[in-house]
Specification:
0% strand; binds magnesium ion
Length: 99
């Protein structure tokens, strides 16, 4: 995760894009990239979409994460820590069914 974060932040900073990256526009960008991901599935079954568009699906998934990492950086949030905290919360909400 740290390698991904450093690569993304370095890419942004080399281009001096940080001043343009406010929380609102980064959140909008995450949503837009999620919709680009969805476009791959429109009017297709899951199997068809994965067969026809696997590379693009991968790239849109990466785009979502790239913007998410930049939003976390902007808000000074440790994304890995927040994911682990949320997974603990999810585990309490959805306990493993025994038997
Ligand atoms: Mg995209």
């Amino acid at each position: 995760m740290d390698n991904i974060r450093k690569t993304i932040i370095n890419f942004r900073d080399e281009r001096n894009w940080k001043p343009y990256h406010n929380e609102k526009d980064l959140a909008i960008s995450i949503s837009l990239e999620a919709n680009e991901l969805l476009e791959n599935f429109q009017w297709k079954t899951s199997d068809e979409a994965v067969r026809d568009s696997e590379q693009n699906i991968k790239e849109e998934m990466a785009d979502i994460l790239i913007y998410l990492v930049q939003l976390a950086d902007k808000m000074d949030i440790d994304l890995e820590e927040e994911v682990l905290k949320k997974m603990k919360k999810n585990a309490l909400k959805y306990p493993v069914q025994k038997g």
